[in-house]
Amino acid sequence: MADLRADARRNRDRLVEAAAALFAERGPDAPLDEVARRAGVGVGTLYRRFPDRDALVRAVAVTSLRRVVGNARAAAGAADGWSGLTGFVRASVGDLRLAAGLSMTFARTWAGLRLDAEHEELRDELVALLQQLVDRAHGEGAMRPEVSAGDLAVLLALVLRPLPGAPPALVGGAAERHIAIVLEGMRAHPGEPLPGDPLLLDDLR
Amino acid sequence: MADLRADARRNRDRLVEAAAALFAERGPDAPLDEVARRAGVGVGTLYRRFPDRDALVRAVAVTSLRRVVGNARAAAGAADGWSGLTGFVRASVGDLRLAAGLSMTFARTWAGLRLDAEHEELRDELVALLQQLVDRAHGEGAMRPEVSAGDLAVLLALVLRPLPGAPPALVGGAAERHIAIVLEGMRAHPGEPLPGDPLLLDDLR
DNA sequence: CTCAATCGGAGGATTTTCCTCCACTTACTG
DNA sequence: CAGTAAGTGGAGGAAAATCCTCCGATTGAG
After folding, report:
1. pLDDT of residue B105
2. Interchain contact, A165 vs B189, CB within 8 Å
């Protein structure tokens, strides 16, 4: 996977990126022909590199996760929990957008598919780091104690998922803004208590 | 449309409801056979009542809009703008979930399809009422002035849209909670300024 | 009880999606 | 700057999903 010819590698990357966008928008069942078209690449190239849909889905998830986990590691070293958390989220907006397809991979997990070793490892590390950041922010009194790491995860997935058929530039560019609003809503301050129960990360498996 | 036999009316309603859920989840191109199946009704029944996909999409949008506009009218008479706004949102969560299909109808508008008279009328009234509620909340200093009615509309559509293949009970039931977090984030209080520009409702047409 | 309205869903037509195959192109290597 | 192994695109047939008609069975209304 590392020793590809330059053009091959380029096309592979394009495919993963296009697939991430399309999966995020339309779910993991989006037609592969369209992935190829969006990537500006022939279908033959797609099927040569990814023998079946699952291989592509896995590649998308792992690629995104790798970067997101990188961001989370960096955030763990931040001065305080809250700024670590917001820093992580902001840094990851782009990757999470790709990684919204990640939530689909969770869906696949629910659907009973096996994850390969690296995938599972990354997922677990991300979950641990996220929980740690949230705990820290809670401890500092910077974050509403009723808001859980699971709430955060779900809200990120929801808000970063593009609306189908939307005006891409317009709504897409607004993601950072909307995420900022959501983060504000998670901040500690004297509001009414939230309805319902916190989502635990474990509930999301 | 009013003088249907009892069973016919019941089935029609079931169809609209099932279609709303499916359109919200998978976009307005979701297979009609599955709409029928989810509604517990034969395909024949579906095609008899809605000659083509567009008729069904229109019915979903108008039905949802009617109820949402009703809520908005009620909210316009609230004691203050902010409670009117939150009241409206909370009351509409169920309908907006259905009406997430509404955002698809916006998408169809973008795609260049004509809306019938009632649909357009409802849309315009909702936009006006929403803008009015937000203006009032702004005037009272209860809502962050940088958050626009368009921001609100888009965030609602995003957060209420179900994740595909998700654990339906779990994530579905959390909608109210997540909406509450978003509303908190829109409240006036001394936070950092939001990045980006406010979304105007007119930008969304 | 009658019957016109309605229902369900089998199944053929149509469209979408998959995915192989190969003649042509391109990056690397000596 | 060839030679060549690796890579490429996309036509097109197979397979699957989706559409949507049709009709014998069922059911609500008077």
Report:
1. 61
2. no
CA-CA distance, A137 to A85, in Å (whole number)? 8
CA-based angle B93:B25:A57, to the nearest 5? 135
The full set of domains in chain B, from first to last, is 52-204 (1.10.357.10)
pLDDT in tens, B84-119: 999 999 898 888 766 665 666 666 666 667 778 888
A44 CA → C17 C1’, Å? 14
The answer to whether A65 and A99 are in contact (CB under 8 A) is: yes
- Cβ B6 to strand D below 7 Å: yes
Closest nucleotide relative to residue A40's CA, C1' based: D9
Q: How far is the CA of B48 from the C1' of C3 (A)?
A: 20
- Rounded to whole angstroms, the Cα distance separating A101 from A109 reads 13
The answer to whether B158 and B104 have CB atoms below 8 angstroms apart is no
Residue A182: strand, helix, or coil = helix
